[in-house]
Structure prediction request, 162 residues.
Amino acid sequence: MLNRRKLLAGTAIGAAGFTLPRTVFADGHAQAMKASALIYITPIQTSGAESGCQAEVWFAALDGDMYVVTSLETWRAQAVREGLTSARVWIGDVGPWKGSNGGYKALPRVETMAAYTTDTATQERVLAVMGAKYSREWGMWGPRFRNGLADGSRVMLRYRLL
Prediction:
């Protein structure tokens, strides 16, 4: 089955194995977000520990926030629905998180607060940013994201920096 990870792996972005040095992050998270194809996310449990649920995902940076479109059934969406809104986000690309041996944890990191984004105007702006950012894959994924948001099978999550 063809998925976003396989498509991204075939692009120059994925093939480059792009990572960001900490000095780039020191210049500001906006620059890091602009340069990266992926972010790695984990919810923070009420105990303060990282969740075992982690993943690398496509995202769009807009107005200083990071946005993700995901299935309503993913752990990301479920965590927010269950009130686990604190999340840790690493910015960069070291490939699939499970195969990175924790390498993504050396990337620039931010603490965030997650929330659902239901405003259709914001969703359209985010989808436009994603369409430009992932233009090679967007012909397949753009309609899936847009239709999923419309029928409720997907949600948009905003990760706001703390």
